[in-house]
Amino acid sequence: MLRVDVLKISGKQVPHFRRRLLAWFAGRKRDLPWRRTSDPYRIWISEIMLQQTRVAAVIPYYKQFVAKFPSMRALARARTETVLGRWAGLGYYSRARNLHRTAKEIVARHGGLFPRGYEATLALPGIGRYTAAAVLSIAYGQALAVLDGNVARVLARIGAVPGDLRAPALWRELETTAQNLLAVQAPGDWNQAMMELGAMVCTPKSPRCEQCPVARWCRARKLAIADQLPAKRIKRATQQVTLAAAVILDSRGRTLLVRQNNGDGALFSRMWQFPALETTGNAAAELTLYLHTNFKFALDGNFTPLKTARHFVTFRNIRLEPFLIRVARLPRIKGARTVALGRLGNLPISNATRKIVHAALEATSSPQWREL
Ligand code: SF4
Question: Which of 111, 132, 174, 332 is placed for a possible disulfide with 121 were both Cys, Cβ 3.0 to 4.6 Å?
Fold first, then answer.
């Protein structure tokens, strides 16, 4: 019988361990919308949405998304803008773009059905080992174990494994461990049970060991070091960034949006945004020069600072410094899009752009602006 080495659980004990965890999951699992289906399309959507996003935040987006695009074919047929519109606010927009590309590819190459093969699944845009294993195990019952941060933490604590779990050699070892531990008769439930344990009981801070169904096998608990594991990763230092943005507004309340492909474009997820640049000194002066150099747009001095906002993206703490620029007529900028400021909320825009829109609307609806 297989011994799960990293965990130091004997082969004899492994079946008990599995039974305990599966029974706990059957009785305690949260009722989540994507757990009421075995449709691989819906499970895949939920898995992509859940990447780096909390369950509570995902639920309303998931419901709206599958109501709007109830099938792989419906998603593949949709316009990118429509898909991004349903994603707006959820962040990490490359996920939505990949989702859309993948749906088209699945319709073109797999007859609209999510593939069953692991390699074929990995070949799809935006699908890595975790997502492939999650969808294939939950939807098709394939014996593939998932390893994400939650599962890795649970395994590291049970085995009292020291070190940086994301170090490639250790991560591979954990993948092997997760696969050896998998309950092959119920891989979908097993994977969800491991993730649920990590999310609800074996939490990053203050694990609830007294409620844990597998506590008797846990070495970290025995050694009283559960809250010290996994070892802290050395965090990348937070980078402070200032971004100046131009809300160019004409007398009819229309503004200009562009798609930037430089570093600032990455912040706005290559979605429609106000012309913007990262500044290190005088934001207004640098923005003026930027607009002139890049868009041949000369300002006539009507340049008003708007309320600043904060925006956080991974290790970047961004100060958004928007400026309102009143013009009689919008300049012609190649590839730009003209939109009424008040209707911008209906477009697929990033949260950073949304904050700028908010500041601009707040300022332009004040009595001072209404008079102009
Ligand atoms: Fe995590 Fe505590 Fe359970 Fe160990 S006993 S797996 S540390 S919750």
Answer: 132
